[in-house]
Amino acid sequence: MSTVACRGERLLEVCDLAVHFTLKRSLGDRLARRGGQVARAVDGVSLALGRGELLALVGESGSGKTTMALAALRLIDPTAGRVLLEGRDVTALSRRELRPLRRRAQLIHQDPYAVLDPRLRTYDLIAEALRIHGLKQSSRAEEREAVHDALEKVGLTPVESFAGRYPHQLSGGQRQRVAIAGSLVLGPSLLVADEPVSMLDVSVRAGVLDLLDRLRDEEDVGILMITHDLATAAHVSDRVAVMYHGNLVELGPARTVIDAPQHPYTQALIHAVPRVHREEERVRTLPGDPPDASHVPTGCRFHPRCPLCEERCRVEVPELLPAAGGGDVVVACHLRVAALKAGDENGLTG
Amino acid sequence: MNSDRRWPVERGTDGAPLRVLELSGLHVWFDAPDGRCAHAVRGVDLAVEAGERVGVLGESGCGKTTLILAAMGLLPSFASVAGTACIDGVDVLARGEESAREVRWTHAAMVFQGAMSAMNPVYRVGKQIADPMVVRGQRGKAEARRRTAELLELVGLPASVAKRYPHELSGGMRQRAVIAMALACDPKVLFADEPTTALDVVVQAQIGDLLADLAERLGLALVMVTHDIGMIAETSARAVVMYAGVVVEDGPTFEVLTAPRHPYTQLLLEATPVVNRDRPLVSIPGTPPRLDEALSGCAFAPRCPYAFEACAARPRLRGDGHTAACHARERGRLT
After folding, report:
1. Architecture of domain A2-26+37-104+188-276+284-349
2. Residue ranges of B 190-219 with Cβ closer than 8 A to chain A
3. Is A190:A105 a contact under the CB 8 Å cutoff?
4. Which residues from chain B sit within 8 angstroms of residue A267, using beta carbons?
5. Do B287 and A274 count as a contact with CB atoms less than 8 A apart?
6. What pLDDT is stored for residue A84 in this prediction?
7. Is B299 on the interface with A (CB under 8 A)?
8. Is 80 exceeded by the pLDDT of residue B15?
9. How far is CA A283 from CA A117, A205, A286, in A?
10. Which ipTM did the prediction report?
């Protein structure tokens, strides 16, 4: 199916992944003698990522993008669905069996200030990863070489001057590079980057994004980048996946999705991005508030906020299907598919 | 209050809009416990007229937040200041807390970044909006309640929100309630410190629109501090760019963002990803100067591609209507 098509050799495959959290029972729940409410953070998401591909997962907070990525790394146990990493089903493995796979799939956190132990020097921060994974090098010299190699790859040169520094002696961008080096030294094939630049200053963001771009090209690493910033996604990713309320609503090549969004939610999201050069006046901002995972609307989950909502949208759940506009984009919207059938383009392009 | 009504911009006797905020020669230092001293604001002159919408743009550590905290008289006790910060003619810094109290809420109010931490979790929203009016002696309790309902309507919230607690509201609603709180005593200047940063992109747009719209309707001066260039483009008529505690550029927003005159502004714009433009991103080499080190010349010179001998002296803001503090610009070395 087109939802799982990706560029190049398939590295990560997520099939019908669901993560539900049971919330604490409230007083009302206890009085009514029912269980706690269930928050459906991720509800049936399928996608694939190729080697050397950068896929941006975009959505508002609460859309389930981070949960989905953590479940893909099995840092959270999914409720249902499968995750294949390099062809192996990660969801079926025990914790012990998972361990050798961990170094193949690494997470880069949002906050480079919190992630580095303030008492360790850069060298030890990176070497620690090697030691933890039992990749103890036969000699000190080999370990040194591995660490220096990682520092060089992330552009922290001259290596000698950075290896001895403590985190507080580094700038935000340099810290994020150290964190990335700590992942790289393990030789991963997949990097999951959770908002890798949102804590950094604008003037250094481009450098870190370029680094991710280069790793994807030179090391053939597949990167799943979680971001709420469409502009960042537009600049570096090959494909963009848009999440809303635990579902994928649109997935396609980055430029196509950003330039000609199909789903009304993607359209609103792109429209809401403040910008310097705006060709047209901003028509409207999306009404309502971001969704609450414990209250799932019937039918299309976006219908309460959708400006184009029809009767059917309130009842039927839309499937992710090839979009009327073509361009390798899949979209979960009745109107987009209906427009395809009826040949009616007026519905959404206006 | 009829929410469609427009308030006229306050004018002086000569008919020109009143200068409601005037900072001159403002310096702020923070003393660290280890004896070092961070010079966060290094000589800023800024005048804002009634009804003006100004966006102060800069990266973290450039002194933009310190600037407005100083103007509100909200600096912590370990800060020392020099210069003046007049709000509606009252120098906030002159008599310490006493003079700051004269202007807070009634002349100048502030919207903070984290709407959750700006509200008290154990009081209902309505009480928190009404409190400043009662404390200031502007209105009685019943009158304050009525006014609270008006304010909530003004910021686009149902009157029932007054009975709710902050945790019952979404992030966007909470930020609206905080804006209503800031407007409680009819201030003339509204400061907003990264008012949209903690919010989702769609809600960000709503709040940005609301602030710009309120400033226009109520004839307020809006001073918004942010690192988000797009937000400034959409809400402010005038943009002020700060770097390392000084103003490096000041002018009409559209001009500053499309024809920047300072090399820092130029590079900052090139470093910012833009959703509808396809061009490579650049990063500015180096890092901003440490604030505990003394600066002699232009603060940006060590990172500036146009730096030359003259940059060893501190540049002044020059230009008519659209100013920049750059020697290279002054000598025509920059186009």
Report:
1. 3-Layer(aba) Sandwich (3.40)
2. 200-206, 208-209
3. yes
4. none
5. no
6. 93
7. no
8. no
9. 47, 30, 10
10. 0.73
